[in-house]
Amino acid sequence: MKLFFFITNAVFWSILLYYMVLTFAGLYHRFKSKKRSQYIHYPSLDIFIPSHNEGIVMKKTLEAMAKLEYPGNMQIYILNDQSTDETGEIAQEFASLYHHIHHVVVPDNDEPKGKSRVLNYGLSISDGEYFIVYDADNQPNKDAAVRLMETTLQTKKAAGAVGVVRTMNAEHSLLTRFIAIEFQIFQLLMQSGRYALHKIGSLPGTNMLLKRSILEEMGGYDPYALAEDAELTIRLASKGYIIAGDPHSQTWEQEPQSLKALIRQRTRWLQGNLYIMLKFFKEPSWWKVKCFVHLTYYLTVYVIFTFLLLASNAAFVIGLLFGFSFETNIPYMLLWYLAYFIYTMQLIIAITYDRMLTGKNVVAAAIMYFSYAQLFIFLLFRSIIMIMKDRRKGTVSWDKTDRVSV
Predict the structure, then answer these.
(1) I want to staple 26 with a disulfide (CB 3.0 to 4.6 A). Which of 153, 193, 330, 353 is the partner?
(2) Sign of the alpha-carbon dihedral angle for 315, 317, 318, 322
(3) Are 191 and 204 in contact (CB under 8 A)?
């Protein structure tokens, strides 16, 4: 038992200290990234907005898209996948007002339903040298697209670039406040921090730019991947491409406002990442250092973190029941308190940099470990059970986050 707790603490602290290094590396990258390189010629650019029954948010999304500033040729495509609500009418209204906005109805076929299939169709009916993907509830800043392009062009071997996602409904409830803080620390550590240290970036699924020719060379999106962004990240890494990052290219999106919606969303993400882990063993071309780093990252975030939570909970309970040191010289309770302090300070650093430092957010950060973080234990086991039951019978479909009018 002593050896088990010693090993657990060693692994836990190694990961925690590494994340602390990522925190400061992320801050360095963000300050450094404020400089912009402007160009005389900007490549042609397509904006893809995959949509399925998004009428409740579509109007505000397209109002924001119409304000995007880009010095070159930019075309915006609403990829309407058989919507039965007012998505099509709103999209067509904007298409009639703006010459560069196009309403495209994605035909039904035998391929798996979902975002990957729609994006592949978007690539087949457009011809821009680069493209950006935005989710249907996104409201990007005016300079979001041009910043992604400039970051890509100034980065060697870049297949594209990613920006950051901000939460537009963060003030709605404690749950949305948790999600907003989680997104900020994730992007500070895993996007900015990892890129600063290792030149490794991950596609987030939205507010991301890619070079068309590279994606076509790789056969497009995997239509069976629920986490199509993570799957594509590893494929790009296997070919030696870099995903650059610009933390000042920002888009705003709506996060789940109910626990039920959050569980559905995160279960889908976890299923998608477990699919990638299984695919890793079937793809020899993925057995490279950077691909392994990405896989380790997904394991850390979605699997190892969960088991460390379980171990940490056990250590805390045992420390309370059996005393301060649990019959050993290692002060487990002290280590637990220090780990909690570092975890919380990382959250506060992230919200401070993003100008989210308020009393409510500090309180939320202080209780996230005891509440929001514990949810990942349930989510991991739920996802594993759902994969074992194979509810989808080998296919994927639209299983998107519920939207509300904000």
Answers:
(1) 193
(2) positive
(3) yes
